[in-house]
């Protein structure tokens, strides 16, 4: 499958969604699919809420970290932040492992049972692998059947389960719902997929116990976003921002950027905000990577344009075909998520976790 062609098609459709291009037939088709998708989502919620479909329960505390739109909103760095602050010792992360070998084969795996030397981003998923490298004291369970993996975690004595991308996973009972929202586009252009980016109605935010407004640049922006969210939920809101730890190494440099993430424009904006000059750029679909042949060709182009090095996200860096030799070195932006608004609400949320009745 030619993912570069798929990426171009995706960007063409995106330009129609954003109003940059006009194509009446495609737009009408997208609207029709969007209505159908919305009906399916609503029906599914009704079936679970009416208890026609049952939710499985496990003994550990289950905390879902999800969103209401498709694409990257910052769930992975927030999970990293959450793990650092949770008042528990035995923590497990349940991930589907999107586009991983484990997912494709329909398996459900406790990664601690595998040979560490054989673990890689293609086996368990790029985001899971990235977190695994950073958090050695956390157990990771990968696979589509997260009820099965939750029970594996329960048998292992896990105290708290973090359900990655869990807001739409209705089969498992959750004790707490955390929803991460992109500050730049909180409601996915206001339409369901594929006319917009919504995968759930903003009205479902009433189920949330905590809202994380990610990408906040100022107190004024946070207050404005909080007012918009308040129309749907009384849940406390946090304001978070990504901080680049190695930004000084990029400032003033000429770089060629590449990535395979949900919102490459955000990565590009971050690089420009660091006062770097972008000489060329390459993007592919979320969770995918470039071949060594593609990387060599891109590096040559960037070198001819005067680039000092290539630059990508950490998620893309872990997928590079090591060891490799390119005409230019490859660096990645090392980021961390920080709470910049309503830190007291965050502390209150963490304290209340210990009071939750698991039973």
- C-alpha geometry: globular
User: CATH homologous superfamily of the largest domain?
Assistant: P-loop containing nucleotide triphosphate hydrolases
Number of strands: 13
The total of helices stands at 12
Residue share in β-strands: 15-25%
What Rg do the Cα atoms give? Answer: 21 Å
Side by side, the strands of the main sheet go 3-4-2-5-1-6-7-8-13
CATH T-level topology of the largest domain:
Rossmann fold
Tally of structural domains? 3
CATH top level of the largest domain is Alpha Beta
Describe this structure as you would to a colleague:
With 359 residues, the protein is of the alpha/beta class. It folds into 3 domains: 3-49; 61-242 and 338-353, Rossmann fold (3-Layer(aba) Sandwich), CATH 3.40.50; 247-333, 3-Layer(aba) Sandwich (Rossmann fold). The chain contains 12 helices and 13 strands. The chain has helices spanning 3-17, 24-49, 75-85, 101-104, 121-124, 126-134, 146-155, 219-229, 264-273, 292-304, 314-317, 343-353, and strands at residues 61-66, 91-95, 108-110, 139-143, 160-164, 176-182, 210-214, 237-244, 254-259, 277-283, 309-313, 330-333, 335-341. The strands form 2 sheets. Strands 3-4-2-5-1-6-7-8-13 form a 9-stranded mixed beta sheet, sandwiched between helices. It has a 4-stranded parallel beta sheet with strand order 10-9-11-12, with helices on both faces. Helix 9 links the parallel strand 9 and strand 10. The radius of gyration is 21 Å and the shape is globular. The termini are far apart. The model has no long low-confidence stretch (mean pLDDT 93).
